[in-house]
Amino acid sequence: MRKIIIAGNWKMYKTQTHALEFLQVFKSKLNETEELKEVVLCVPFTVLSIVSKNLHGGTIRLGAQNIHWEEQGAYTGEISGTMLQDIGVQYVIVGHSERRQYFGETDETVNLRLLAAQKVGLTPILCVGETKQQRDTHQTELVIINQLNVDLSNVDQDNLVIAYEPIWAIGTGETCAPVEANSTIALIRSELANPEVTIQYGGSVKPDNIDELMKQPEIDGVLVGGASLDPVSFARIVNYS
Length: 241
Ligand code: 13P
Prior knowledge:
The protein is α/β, with parallel strands linked by helices. It has one domain (4-238): TIM Barrel (Alpha-Beta Barrel), CATH 3.20.20.70. It is built from ten helices and eight strands. The protein has helices at 16-29, 45-53, 81-86, 97-102, 107-119, 132-136, 140-151, 178-190, 210-214, 231-238; strands at residues 4-9, 37-42, 60-64, 91-94, 123-128, 161-164, 198-202, 221-224. The longest helix is centred in the first third of the chain and has 14 residues, at 16-29. The relative contact order is 0.16. The mean pLDDT is 96. Bound molecules: 1,3-dihydroxyacetonephosphate.
């Protein structure tokens, strides 16, 4: 059985006070999750510690948003896997399109980060997806296959989550139609050595489209940006029906 993972990506939002306010409301709205459903909060480095100390008795897992590939060293401004693991992190987002677009991440560095996460026992959430222009010119398949080929080189597919995040659907309110997301995720799955990998959809997931998305047979969860900042919205997403 593939694991269902509902993850929030807070991006560069929330101070410690705001993180605690979120948790107080969020925890009160959370239904008992079934064994196969996991809730993950991928928060900024500066609130990892406080969120770690205030989690819901183990039901909510802690995630980070990036990881450096070296364990330690002269890499000003970077954070290693050992450091993340040290404060209770279990998941880490790798290769988010915002990191690829604004911070020069390449498939080669994404691959190094995936390997580094697995080396210390973290589960990486690898993000892949096409731009609007690539989609409009029917290159979605090619782009994703090329990303996977490099990103997943020597990566252990038994400890991996993939998030299909079409770039044109991120933060735009323009959701990928559930059926289209389902078929692209099926394509991703067909490229994997392990078909049991959890594959999420990400891009303008909201309380009003989560139920339809989760009805799709290939979609094993979601990676949520904007709507994960509000505890009521995110709880509704986690408690999808
Ligand atoms: P939005 O849900 O705000 O579109 O962001 C998606 C995303 O980038 C999650 O990683």
